[in-house]
Each structure stands twice: as structure tokens, then as C-alpha cells.
Backbone:
DNA sequence: CCACACTATTTAA
DNA sequence: TTAAATAGTGTGG
């Protein structure tokens, strides 16, 4: 199995996308610290083939849109094989939440025909390997509480706020630029 | 298998 | 604010 990592520089920090041969495997949020200093420079990986280049571009646009609070454009194929059947069912349900809207953990559970599995839904959200693009930040707790977020609640609040105020055709020009390739996961 | 101990929950007391 | 209920998953025997 060969992986490719793709780093996106944004005003919100450096995001990383990890690809398997089957598609997008994971999205990582910027490290808590502003990624200072002397981490060993990434060993450059093999030049990406056209298929990977296409995936990279799709991921870049999607991350760009997500950070702007806009609806997501076409995504690259997602490699969800690491998740259980239940997890994948939850993740698929999350992709059906429209931009700017939210659902509760319980609502997602009900959608899956398991009205009492709210807590398990939360667990599946926490296991979501592709936050931001699989919009687990749109899942909140009942009673208007925020719930949790694997990358930190500040991100969840930020994303929800941007989506909520995202003007119709509104633009929020955030640029992503390719910074580097590598071959390790 | 079985038993527990975890959860980004929810509801009732 | 606390406690109990509840489902899925990982771990240890």
C-alpha cells in the first residue's frame, strides 16, 4: 500500500490530506502549535500520477470551500475502509447534512434506524477520519449544546459560524497552495 | 465467547 | 447537576 500526503497551506493553518490508492483516507487539522521550526523536512515522495493530481485538486477546492463555510464541490473518492459498517453508515449520513444546517446525534441515529444509538453515533463521529469534508462539525448535542470535536471545539464553533453566515453566493477567498509531497502515511 | 470499560449522548429526577 | 439507560467497539481473559 502506497500513500501520498498532501499539505495545504491556508490562513487557518496547514491541513494535510492522506491518500491511499483507493482515495482520500484522512484529513488532518493543523497541529495545535503553529508548526514551528525544525521538524525534519518531508522526504519528497514519488511524483504524483495524473489520478492523484486530480484528487489533490479536488481536495484542495473542497478544503477551501469548507473553510469558507461554502457548500462543498465534488470530492475525490473517499477511502472509508478503515471504518466499521456502522461507522461508514454514520459517515454517509453526515454527508447528507446540508451546508449551514445541523443535526443532533440522536437525529442521525434515528436516520439510521437506531433511535437509541445516539451515543454510538458520537463515537463514530469521533472516529471520522475525514473531518471538514465529512462534516461531523454539523452534528451537535440535544438541547442546543455543542457536543465534541476531535480537533478541538474551537474549530467546530468556527466552522459552524462561517457556514451560518455564509452569504448566498458569498465569497470568502481562502487560498490553498500545494507545498509538498511525501510518501509515508 | 464473555465481561468490561471505554465514549463527541440523552433524558429524567 | 447527577444518574441511569443505551449501543457500538476495543481489549483481556
Residues:
Amino acid at each position: 500500500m502506497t500513500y501520498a500526503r498532501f499539505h495545504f497551506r491556508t490562513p487557518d493553518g496547514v491541513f494535510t490530506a492522506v491518500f491511499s490508492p483507493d482515495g482520500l483516507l484522512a484529513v488532518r487539522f493543523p497541529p495545535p502549535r503553529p508548526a514551528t521550526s525544525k521538524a525534519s523536512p518531508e522526504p519528497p515522495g514519488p511524483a504524483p500520477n495524473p489520478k492523484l493530481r486530480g484528487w489533490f485538486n479536488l481536495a484542495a477546492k473542497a478544503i477551501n470551500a469548507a473553510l469558507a463555510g461554502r457548500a462543498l464541490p465534488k470530492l475525490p473518492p473517499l477511502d472509508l475502509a478503515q471504518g466499521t459498517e456502522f461507522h461508514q453508515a454514520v459517515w454517509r449520513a453526515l454527508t447528507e447534512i446540508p451546508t449551514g444546517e445541523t443535526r443532533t446525534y440522536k437525529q442521525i441515529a434515528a436516520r439510521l434506524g437506531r433511535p437509541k444509538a445516539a451515543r454510538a453515533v458520537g463515537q463514530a463521529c469521533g472516529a471520522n477520519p475525514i473531518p471538514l469534508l465529512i462534516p461531523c462539525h454539523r452534528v451537535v448535542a440535544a438541547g442546543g449544546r455543542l457536543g465534541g470535536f476531535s480537533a478541538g471545539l474551537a474549530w467546530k464553533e468556527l466552522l459552524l459560524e462561517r457556514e451560518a453566515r455564509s452569504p448566498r453566493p458569498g465569497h470568502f477567498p481562502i487560498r490553498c497552495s500545494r507545498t509538498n509531497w511525501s510518501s509515508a502515511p
